[in-house]
Write a structure and sequence with these properties.
mainly beta, Immunoglobulin-like, five-stranded mixed β-sheet, four-stranded mixed β-sheet, 2 helices
Length: 274
C-alpha cells in the first residue's frame, strides 16, 4: 500500500518577510506652517513665540524704545500672560488708556514674549508704522510719547489670535481757546471716517453748562457715552473709542454721534469697519 504524499505549505521567501517586518511606516503629512494671525499660541514655548516675533520683525522694522524726558508719564500697561493689563484686572481683556497730548505711555514686561505694535492687527496696512517693539525678558520696557490727538489701537503680534491688544485715546487738554467762540456745536466732524477703531472730534461751547456726547446705532439705541461733563465756554476735543459701555468693540456699521450742549443738540454720522 502506497503512502499519501505530504501536503505542501506555501513558501514565503525569508528575505521578503524580513523586509516587510522592518519597512518603515508611511511618513505623516508635513505640518502646516503656523500663521501668526488667528491661532491659539497658549501652548507655545517662549523660544517658539520669540521666533514668531523675529519673523514679524524681519518684514517690519523694529522701532527702538523711545524715552522723552520732557513728556509726562501718564499710564503703564503690564504685559501679563496674553493681556495688556492697565486696571489691575486681567479678566478685562482689552484695556483703554485715556491721556492728553504730550503724555507718554509705557509698557512693562511681566511674563512671556510679546510685541507692542500699533494698529488694529497684522492685516492693518499701518501696523508697526508708529511703534513696533519687542517686550520680553531682554527688553523689559518700552515707552512712547503721544504728540497728536487721536485713537491709537495696539496689539501683540505673537498673541494676536488670543486678542492681546489695547487702546490709547489721546485728547488735547480741555480749556478755553484764545478768542471768542462764534457758534456752538461741532467744529470738526468725527474722524477718521470710516474707522477701524474710534474717532475724535472738536466742538465749541458758547456758554458754560453740561455737555454730553452719546453714540446711537441705526435703530436709535444708545450704545455708548463718549462725553459727559460740565464745561465752560470754549473749544474742546472729544473722542469715542469705538466700544460699547460694556467695553466690547461695536459691530461694523453706521452709528450716530449726538452732541448735546446748553441750548442745542446736533448729530454726526460715524462708520465703523472691521
Amino acid at each position: 500500500m502506497s503512502r499519501p504524499k505530504p501536503t505542501r505549505r506555501p513558501f514565503i521567501p525569508i528575505l521578503t518577510l524580513a523586509l516587510a517586518l522592518v519597512a518603515p511606516s508611511p511618513a505623516p503629512p508635513p505640518a502646516r506652517a503656523a500663521d501668526h494671525t488667528g491661532h491659539d499660541r497658549a501652548g507655545m514655548s517662549d523660544a517658539a513665540m520669540q521666533r514668531q516675533a523675529d519673523a514679524w520683525f524681519a518684514k517690519h522694522p523694529l522701532n527702538a524704545p523711545i524715552t522723552h524726558a520732557t513728556s509726562t508719564e501718564a499710564v503703564t500697561f503690564r504685559a501679563v500672560g496674553t493681556v495688556f493689563d492697565l486696571d489691575g484686572n486681567t479678566s478685562t481683556v482689552v484695556d483703554t488708556a485715556r491721556i492728553s497730548v504730550g503724555d507718554t505711555v509705557s509698557w512693562t514686561w511681566v511674563s512671556g514674549s510679546h510685541t507692542v505694535t500699533n494698529g488694529t492687527g497684522s492685516d492693518d496696512l499701518d501696523a508697526g508704522v508708529l511703534f513696533n517693539a519687542n517686550l520680553n525678558s531682554a527688553s523689559r520696557n518700552f515707552s512712547f510719547p503721544f504728540t497728536a490727538a487721536g485713537t491709537y489701537p495696539f496689539f501683540c503680534v505673537i498673541h494676536e489670535g488670543l486678542n492681546m491688544r489695547g487702546v490709547v485715546i489721546v485728547t488735547r487738554t480741555a480749556g478755553v481757546k484764545p478768542g471768542s467762540v462764534a457758534h456752538a456745536g461741532f467744529v470738526s466732524d468725527p474722524a477718521p471716517v470710516p474707522s477701524r477703531g474710534g474717532v475724535t472730534f472738536r466742538f465749541a461751547v458758547t456758554r458754560a453748562g453740561h455737555v454730553r456726547a452719546d453714540v446711537f446705532d441705526v435703530r436709535g439705541r444708545r450704545v455708548a457715552v463718549a462725553l459727559d461733563r460740565e464745561t465752560g465756554a470754549g473749544t474742546f476735543d472729544g473722542a469715542w473709542d469705538g466700544r460699547m459701555r460694556s467695553g466690547e468693540r461695536v459691530a461694523s456699521g453706521v452709528y450716530y454721534l449726538r452732541l448735546t450742549l446748553p441750548g442745542m443738540a446736533e448729530s454726526r454720522r460715524v462708520v465703523i469697519t472691521d
